[in-house]
Amino acid sequence: MLKVENKKVTGEVARATYKANRKRNALIIFAILLTTLLIAVVAAVGISYWKAVSERQIRMEGMDYDIALTEPREEQVNRIRGMKEVACAGVAVKCAILEQYQDKTLDKTRLYWLDKTCWEKQTLPALETWNGSYPRKEEEIMLSTFALKNMGIKEPKIGMELPLTYFTLAEGENETSFEKEFVLCGWYTDYSGDMRGYVSQKFFETTGVEQTDFTQGSLKITLNNPLYSEEDIVAMQKAIRVEDRQIIEADYDTISAFCKTVICLGLLLLMIFASGYLFIYNALYISVSKDIRFYGQLKTVGMTSVQLKKTVWLQSLWNAAAGIPLGILSAAVVSKLVIPGILSAVNPQLPAEDFASVPLWVFFLAAGFAFFTNLVSCRKPVKMAGECSPVEAMRYTAVSSKKRTGRWTAGGTGAMAFQNLFRDKKQAFIIFISFIIALSVFLVVNEVIRENDAKLILNETSSYDIRFKNETTLDEIRKPLLTEEKIERVRKIPGVREVRKVTSTEIVVPYQEAVYGRYYKELYQSRYSPGNYQADMKQYRKHPENSSFTARFISVDENGFHVLNESLGNVLDKKAFEAGEIAVAAKTFTEGDNGIAGKKVRFYLPEGRSPKQERSIRIAAVGDIYSNPAYFAGGYTPDLIVSEPYARNLMGNNLFTELIEVEYEEAFSQETEKQVKAVFAEEKQISSESKLDRYTEMKRSENQIKVLGGSLGLIIAILAILNYLNMMAASVQNRARELATLESIGMTTRQIRRMLRLEGLGYAGISAVISLIAGLPLSYVVFKGTSLYRISFSVPWLSDALMIAAILLVCMTAPVVIYNRTQTDSIVQRLRSGEE
């Protein structure tokens, strides 16, 4: 008996077969190349996208840290810095407030001193751009571009002199104003929208403020592990002996939020890898299934199942050896050149090299995944090739041979298309799962893009486009700068939808245990306690006009009522509110309504028509700082918000407009804003807050996030579409004889095209429905786990609908195009080729 060199025979057959099927192998190599490329690019884009979103969130905060200790003592600072779980800890102290620049009254601009750690390790990472250097000399100052714009400085320069008026925040001192010639040593941009500046240690020391002063000093703590529990914070509090009103400000939901995020990201990655796996598996499965007859012929001449299996394995390894390196090379080019180029184009402020640092493990991950997928995908085809008998192989067709029965058989092209959808269950499953994964990932990514959309964030967190404030509101001599004449001029500007007016004055609320008793007890138990409860309440009873316990009497017009009511959950009765029968209490320092809602509160207005006359009103709802339309604060007693007609009835001509809110027909309209600002351009004691100005600060990263997020969804969609095209090409080719038979018995080419079009529509339509059922709840889970802004969940229907429509269009047109391109022979030739 002759010894057969199995390896040599197998290798020769594999090489001969490989050369004979160059086009088919080129398609498989392309599938492996493309999967490797897309997986690497997905990882690279995903890393850049996550970085962009994280940076956006940090810049919205203005500082990068995990927890903070209020009013830190020096020994506490040293103790915390020595803890093994702490990466760094920096001190920040609010020491002064800027009041005026030249003759312009400023919206209160807070000045901070930061130590070296806080500036270099916690503040700089949160700045998008910065120029100059941190202040060193006493007269030097660094300001945010937002604060500079508020001063009217659009083109700042290093060394420019800034004559400023300020007051310090030292405990026990009155707000005595000081004038100083500051020198601008730098400026920066973040997304916080805060009027903020930084000063030198020398200036800080002149203010008399200490880092232990209440609410002024803070130790910003960055942990080695940002995941912490309430037990960790309690242990730290005990270790540093927290005293008096000190607290460690922390988010105890950080672990649960992290777990939700990891689960969401894990599901996204799983679906992405599943799409890549299906693409390679599909290509290999179709390739081997087409050669089953050839393998049957080899078996008839004596080739064993083991040799056939080795042949298929060798060919798959050669394809992987060609496709994976090409895919990695392409991914390197895309991630190092294309992506940075696009991101640099949409965000010129940031250099392209900031996006080019794709970790090396990304390429190893893509290569390993493609190789692993290639091996796993070969198992089924290899088994199929090895175990199929010669007779079965010669009779094999890729189309299910089950007899079609039932009412659908004679139901026309629609019924035939429906039956064809599920005739090859494996093909149907692969197509459906590919599209479902792709569309679900797109829905989730689209939701993440939406929740980080700067315009959406600003629209939902701000009810106005621009707000003008009278900075003399709390002065002894108030100036009626927001006059009816100027408000009317604003209303008449084209593009202005509405103007909302807010008035305010001081209100005296006598001590009322039944109304505010629970509130004051909770206030004095909190860290914001004004002092000794018993002594203060005794004094309050005797002298309710004491400034610590006065409040603001605030009124809103009809337009303002709708905004207020919506913020409270639409619980107010409009007629009762306008008639002065009900009011809203707005407080800051405690949680819940403290039993205030439903009670009648007594008050009198020192500046009203009858200064000593006591009045009463029922409190219908209790709001917080987010629902309070006023800007300037009173004492510890909750503010009262009433209707403008009721306030005018009590105040007469003394009704003082604190601020106005302007809403445009088209949000972020530059032309409208320019005209609105012009009305108050000459008023030096009116400050403004513009949503457009904040968006200008944030929009540099806007396109960056959209491009990266959109790329993720698009890549998955491309994988799904390629899977579909591959499957449909194989399906049309394998059904060539069947389609020719249908034509031979009278079915027209137009009817066949309609049937194929309906098949594609069925695949896309069913996939879209299942994707919406699965993807929308997943989107909501991701939104709840990753959203950091006070915005509501909503679905970006337009972009979702456009993607679904695009897939429907591809699915409907692709089978017809494939049919037109492949089935060009005569009916007789196609019938004969099917018998071969």
TrEMBL record:
Q: Name one GO cellular component term.
A: plasma membrane
The answer to whether keyword Lipid biosynthesis applies is no
One Pfam family this chain carries?
FtsX
Task: Please report the record's description of how this protein sits within the membrane.
Answer: Multi-pass membrane protein
Enumerate the InterPro entries for this protein: ABC3_permease_C, Macrolide_Exporter_MacB
Major localization listed first in the record, in broad terms = membrane
Q: Quick check: keyword Transmembrane helix in the entry? A: yes
This protein's UniProt keywords? Cell membrane, Membrane, Transmembrane, Transmembrane helix
Q: Where in the cell is it found?
A: Cell membrane
Q: Which residues form the ABC3 transporter permease C-terminal domain?
A: 267-383, 712-821
GO MF, one example: transmembrane transporter activity
**Segments passing through the bilayer:** 27-50, 265-284, 317-338, 358-376, 428-445, 707-725, 760-781, 801-820
So what family is this one in?
Answer: Belongs to the ABC-4 integral membrane protein family.
Q: What is this protein called?
A: ABC transporter permease
Source organism: Zhenpiania hominis
